[in-house]
Write a structure and sequence with these properties.
By secondary structure, this protein is of the alpha/beta class. It has two domains: 32-247, TIM Barrel (Alpha-Beta Barrel), CATH 3.20.20; 261-387, Lyase, Ornithine Decarboxylase, Chain A, domain 1 (Beta Barrel). The protein has eleven helices and 18 strands. The strands form three sheets. Strands 2-3-4-5-6-7-8-9 form an eight-stranded parallel β-barrel. It has a five-stranded mixed sheet with strand order 17-16-10-1-18. Strands 11-12-15-14-13 form a five-stranded antiparallel sheet, with no helix packed on it. Strand 16 and strand 17 (357-359) form a beta hairpin. It starts with 9 loop residues before the first strand and ends with a strand. The structure holds pyridoxal-5'-phosphate. Pyridoxal-5'-phosphate (PLP) is lined by residues 38, 40, 88, 170, 210-212, 226-230, 236. Residues 38, 40, 88, 170, 210-212, 226-230, 236 line the site of pyridoxal-5'-phosphate.
């Protein structure tokens, strides 16, 4: 038996924060709109297998993943037999049988995939649960308007094999007001698809909104919203946050969403460095005075990017300590000259709260709209996730 040593860093997931966020989101649902929790990208870095049961406890029973392999992880992680998993993207013909037999719902946006699904459903004697994705103007995946009638006719004809659970699309860029007209056009097109569908089949669940559209366009929530980033406690963009705070007349400093994730490590070594000496590789950092340096066992291999060289921060004793010198593969050196009684083993927070201070995900680099998504999903799957 191996001793099961801990990794140099851990990711803690705050159950109370998630419950707070789900409640906040549910309170914004227009009469009975269902929330599907989007857990693609390893649950935005939170870890599917740790996050999913936590979300189930918070009252979620529908999850959206990107691919069949993520659906497999999700299916193995659920505790509630009624919990549904939906694949929004990649599924291969050879993965269809597994999905159908396990009641996993999946998007179809190609005629051939739909035909394969119907044939396999027939063969295994169980209906395929599909969501028909409509092209409404994002031009990524989805059935084009000229195919809609034939599509609905096909599912009507094959209703013994195909169970249409949803009609869907994806409102592109609802986090920016610059896309306002584009979203109005998508909305109009989706409604057109619905009216055509109704001539052939009973109307299934309609869904189109992600976090930004859900919060900014409540009239476009339809029957279900696919919520990713907001449940983890992040706003899709600064604009969405400002919009919300203004429309609810809330204090700009406060934030109704709470971050679920904290990434922490500990001090591995301490060292005094004399004024005039370089720290770490090359001549990236020159000590301008006598300094105290702590080494922390995380580096770019763990997702702490080299772009944080000489510019990132971590929290120790509730204080911000700057990264000095290059970010290495497995280590960073931080300036702890101002801390009293600092010792090996002291907690180091890389993302999240410690004392009264917080390192936000955004502080990992330049503020851009999608940075939160990218930083989170890059957190390696190998770091253990612990529910607190
Ligand atoms: C990722 C994704 C979502 C969730 O987006 P958020 O902005 O994180 O809420 C919803 N729908 C689809 C199709 C997605 O790919």
């Amino acid at each position: 038996m191996t001793p099961g040593f801990l990794q140099p860093s851990v990711i803690e997931l705050d159950k109370a924060a998630l419950q707070n966020n789900i409640l906040f989101l549910k309170n914004r649902a227009e009469n009975g709109v269902k929330i599907s929790s989007v857990i693609k990208g390893n649950a935005y870095g939170h870890g599917i297998s740790s996050f999913l049961p936590m979300a189930e406890e918070a009252g979620i029973d529908h999850f959206s993943v990107f691919s069949a392999n993520e659906a497999e992880i999700a299916t193995c992680s659920k505790n509630n037999p009624d919990t549904k998993v939906m694949i929004m993207g990649m599924i291969r013909d050879e993965e269809l049988e597994w999905a159908i037999l396990n009641g996993v719902e999946f998007y179809v946006f190609e005629k051939e995939r739909l035909k394969s699904a119907a044939a396999i459903a027939q063969k295994v004697g169980k209906r395929a649960s599909v969501h028909l994705q409509m092209e409404t103007g994002m031009n990524r995946t989805g059935f084009d308007e000229h195919d809609w009638e034939a599509l609905f006719r096909f599912v009507k004809k094959n209703e013994g094999a195909v169970n249409v659970c949803g009609i869907c699309t994806h409102f592109a860029g609802a986090e920016s007001v610059a896309n306002f007209y584009r979203i109005q056009n998508q909305d109009a097109k989706l409604r057109k698809a619905i009216s055509i569908a109704q001539k052939f089949i009973p109307l299934p669940k309609v869904h189109a909104a992600s976090s930004a559209a859900y919060l900014t366009y409540p009239e476009k929530q339809f029957d279900m919203a696919r919520i990713g980033i907001a449940q983890y406690g992040f706003w899709p963009s600064r604009e969405t946050y400002m919009y919300h705070m203004k429309s609810e007349k809330l204090d700009q400093g406060s934030d109704p969403l709470k971050r679920v994730l904290t990434w922490k490590s500990e001090i591995m070594s301490l060292k005094e460095v004399e004024s005039g000496d370089f720290i770490g590789y090359g001549n990236v950092y020159l000590a301008g005075k006598n300094m105290k340096i702590a080494t922390v066992p995380i580096g770019y291999t763990h997702g702490f990017g080299r772009n944080l060289t000489n510019s990132g921060y971590v929290l120790i004793h509730g204080e911000r300590c700057g990264v000095v010198g290059l970010v290495n593969m497995n280590m960073i050196t931080v300036n702890v000259s101002n801390l009293e009684n600092v010792k090996i083993g002291d907690e180091v927070v890389l993302i999240g709260r410690q004392g009264d201070d917080e390192i936000t995900v955004a502080s990992f680099g330049e503020m851009t709209n999608n940075l939160n998504y990218e930083v989170l999903t890059r957190l390696p799957t190998t770091i253990p996730r612990i529910v607190c």
